[in-house]
Structure to design on (199 residues):
């Protein structure tokens, strides 16, 4: 029932936007802006830049909305425009590919323990802390589902560079998870020590 209501609201907004109704355009923006802004922030560190790119992307959505035929998911159609705009921004800002060396993470964290105590928000913060090139390739590959060939074509790098960036991103995340696990173990020890002394 709820899905049908949302679908009807989307159809109403889409039709209003196709007629260039300002109220419908405003409501569409208000409904999706925060979601797409969060997506841009995964690719663009500078929050003001991310906002600017969001405005450009929404303008493109409104200008191209006649191309949406009603087939498939409207949010999925918008997502393609949004991701393409993020990639377009990244292509224009080639300095994103600066790499930093990291030590290989040979230690395997206790993922089961971390899963119980690590929030999704913590993992997103770890991804956000990755060097720019690593973060972009990781987001495109692991979250958006692009292949290395697609990533290479979209942002103008070689497939091998894409694979290398992903590998380094994973190693960096593994290292961050290891550090998170060590902090967690330390907190547990600190918590248990006073309890032992009172027994």
């Amino acid at each position: 029932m709820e899905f049908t209501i949302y679908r009807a609201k989307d159809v109403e907004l889409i039709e209003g936007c196709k007629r260039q109704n300002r109220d419908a355009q405003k409501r569409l923006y208000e409904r999706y802006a925060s979601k797409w802004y969060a997506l841009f922030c995964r690719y663009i560190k500078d929050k003001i830049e991310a906002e600017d790119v969001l405005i450009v992307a929404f303008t493109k959505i409104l200008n191209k909305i006649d191309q949406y035929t009603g087939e498939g998911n409207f949010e999925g159609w918008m997502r393609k425009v949004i991701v393409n705009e993020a990639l377009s921004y990244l292509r224009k800002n080639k300095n994103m590919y600066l790499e930093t060396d990291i030590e290989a993470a040979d230690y395997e964290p206790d993922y089961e323990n971390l899963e119980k105590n690590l929030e999704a928000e913590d993992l997103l913060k770890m991804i956000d802390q990755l060097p720019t090139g690593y973060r972009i390739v990781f987001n495109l590959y692991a979250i958006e589902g692009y292949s290395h060939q697609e990533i290479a074509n979209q942002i103008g790098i070689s497939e091998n560079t894409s694979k290398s960036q992903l590998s380094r991103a994973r190693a960096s995340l593994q290292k961050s998870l290891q550090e998170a696990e060590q902090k967690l173990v330390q907190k547990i020890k600190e918590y248990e020590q006073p309890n032992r002394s009172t027994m």
User: Anything to note?
Assistant: Residues 189 and 196 are 10 Å apart (CA to CA).
